[in-house]
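Quick entry between incubations.
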Amino acid sequence: EPEVTQTPSHQVTQMGQEVILRCVPISNHLYFYWYRQILGQKVEFLVSFYNNEISEKSEIFDDQFSVERPDGSNFTLKIRSTKLEDSAMYFCASSADRNSNQPQHFGDGTRLSIL
Amino acid sequence: SQQGEEDPQALSIQEGENATMNCSYKTSINNLQWYRQNSGRGLVHLILIRSNEREKHSGRLRVTLDTSKKSSSLLITASRAADTASYFCATGGGNKLTFGTGTQLKVEL
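Done. Structure below.
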């Protein structure tokens, strides 16, 4: 069964450094998402992306964050200048359709640790 | 915003028993979804129930939805140790999902 893959599984970065998290969505999916989960807390929506532009973003997704689909397969999340509070699990998801009755398929996440 | 809140926060049962988890939300919905998360892994979609449905089954899973009470329940029958995971309800869809706080289920042998 096709799946969403994320790399790296764990990223350790110094505060203030830039970090890029990578995702390969399911190949025929058109809608892409990033979520994060701070340890012990809810999974929170960050951003959705379709047709090479952001469809919706949350308050968390400030100017330090950006997303990109640099080629036909990858979908990346960049944090420009990381802060301690960016430490979390970051999940990528994709869906075939934006129809609200379509499930989103999640990757296993990248654990981001900011030192 | 639509928001799911699950209870209980944690549930420990013996293998073979049934597990019931509840979810409440605040606003009108088109559907409600349940996801499972094994420790250290991503979220796996389990089942989706539309707002005009009251009950749905998938294998050992049974989901109910009461839109008048803005609540849903997930029942896992004949639980197995492999069912040990966190279970989340989620509302929304389309551009984003809003997840609840989750129920940590532990199924002991």
